[in-house]
Input
Amino acid sequence: MSATPEPFLGVIDHTPVRHHILSVLVENKAGVLARIAGLFARRGFNIYSLAVAPAESGARFSRVTIVVDAESAPLEQIVGQLDKLVNVVAISDISPKDALERELLLATIKTDVDNRTSLLDIIANAGAAIVDVDAKSVTVMLAGTPGGCDELERALESFAEVELHRTGRVALPRLGKTASA
Amino acid sequence: MQLTGAQALIKSLEQQGVEVVFGLPGGAILPVYDPLIDSSIRHILVRHEQGAGHMAEGYALATGRPGVAMVTSGPGATNIVTPIANAHMDSTPLVVITGQVASGSIGTDAFQECDITGITMGITKHNFLVKSAQEIPRAVAAAFHLATTGRPGPVLIDVPKDVTQSMMDWWYPSTIEEYDLPGYRPDVPLDEDAIARAVALIDAAERPVLYVGGGTLKSRASAELLAFAERTKMPVVTTLMARGAFPDSHEQHLGMPGMHGMYTAVTAIQRSDLLISLGARFDDRVTGKIPAFAAGAKVIHVDIDKAEFNKVRHADVAVQSNVAAALLAFDAASATPRNLDAWWRQIRDWQERYPLVYEEPSIDGLLRPQHVIQAIAAKAEPGTIIASGVGQHQMWASQFWKFEEPGTWINSGGAGTMGFGVPSAIGAKVGRPERTVWCIDGDGCFQMTAQELVTARAEGIPIKVAILNNAYLGMVRQWQEMFYEERYSEVYLSADLPDYVKWAEAMGCVGLRATNLKEMHDVIEEANKINDVPVVIDFRTDSSEKVFPMVAAGASNDDIMVHPLQRGASK
Output
């Protein structure tokens, strides 16, 4: 299996620019996610994807990466309202063109002798890895750009039974670029 | 020192300088009511939890200090949701303490359990579910800090019963760092560049208007406003939330803008070339149709809350600051508009042509509500505090009462909560007992929260209530008359049912009634003589009276409808 060059470099060409990435540092307290989700719901802001995990400072803070639809409301409004949540500690806004975005895709695909070869080709082309195998199925993993995950997802559509999960993206500014606070 | 959580809660309130708590006990909050007996804090026992919330609001609006309410879990907590929502809309500092079922029972649908932190998430500035007795002092200190700094608002503390029953080592946070609010930074340094750009806009203005909102009162900026306005000679309008921030008697004051604003206030904004918004938020009741609102004006938007910038109206210059600091900065830079003589000539012309008017009251006919308000005002002591419910009577009170100082107008602006009047008047009187407090109420509003007059009588809080009884849900009736072809749907209440005099007497108050001019003057005199018990006056008013001027919902402010008496006069 040869390593396939990564097809995307963080810029998601199919993602309209109206998507903005907010990297939000929050206190790791009960109900914080509900506060964020509730705010978006009541103000009519759309969330495109959301990823949450404990942040660098250990258990005290979490980082929430929210991809927002900046056409549902001006980004300034979204950031301004989000900033008023007392549990929100810091917000950085990473514009899509300055962002390095990654997400994780896991998919279990039923295969048989007839289609296993083409599946392996798809996996190899996508730069994905096989993480589990049994007689009738394989589970593959791709840690890649959202665009790369989209491509793999489309390629797997031809298989009869696919169970597929994606995490939503996390992001950092590209080197030399900064997020605006 | 070992204390129970309940003792720690009461002691924390004492540490905050709380002098009064409005509340009603119940199962989950029971432990807290025990140490309350030994506390210096006065407790006002309400008859419905909504009353506790509105009283705390009235107290806060009259004194500038945070209002405190305490209720039990479940229905006790949900009953206070309306005041919390009301305080949130009007940025009123409130600390609400709710009992909660024991920690181990949370999530089990226990008796009187409800997720009040979940329910109030969107209508509080912040809320806390306290997990241990040791955390109570921090939660209380943080709640008061949050409620009163930055853009003020309601904060709720939910305390499970086992938490108030368990023991803690007494401590109290002495620094803001100990509040543990890493995401809360209410103090924003003044943006000198924004100030400079604002000053440049002011210096170039020929038709400026100072659009004064509730934030001016919240930041106690009345003195700075008066100084700035007098130095620059700019006309001033005060929104419904800002009545009293600038003296109504001042010659530069054009009155209230908005849907039922003064013709001159509305029109001056429309024709202005610079609108200086001071703690106002471009509410739809002020702007009317947004694209048509002050279409030729540049906007300087001063607000402590940056989320208000560009929310409704584009700000040419946004100054994130409390109003007082921004005005001082404008003054320090000697911001001065151009010669305003022509602007003032235009304004005086509007004022002359379109003053506030209403039809002459007849000798024996039903009373004019506007006239009743003016008659009360004529016999009122200076500094009288006016509370109101929501509807026609509220608009008339705002239009016809002359407010001269902050804290004298207690009303529900953003939420428009009917029934706000009586309990908020009680709260205001508790906070400023030396002042006369009149509640100008409607008959519909009165029926929603009148039971709190029992509280007022029992606690010795002698407010005066003027019911402008027109037998209708008057504002809805006005809309049905004007916009629904006089098809009156479910707005008739009857002037005689209930009998307001008997009801007042049953609640231990003095009940009076006025059906004509002579009686009107007599009962006001009589009410003014009573200072030991609450007084309720049933003023029988003409139900056909409508509030004018009026801008129809969604219409341009240019299409303001003046009083029928003034129609036909050329604009």
Notes: The longest strand of chain A covers residues 99-110. Strands of chain A lie at 19-27, 46-54, 61-69, 88-94, 99-110, 129-133, 137-144, 162-166, 170-173. The mean pLDDT of chain A is 86. The domain at 101-171 of chain A is CATH 3.30.70.1150 (Alpha-Beta Plaits).
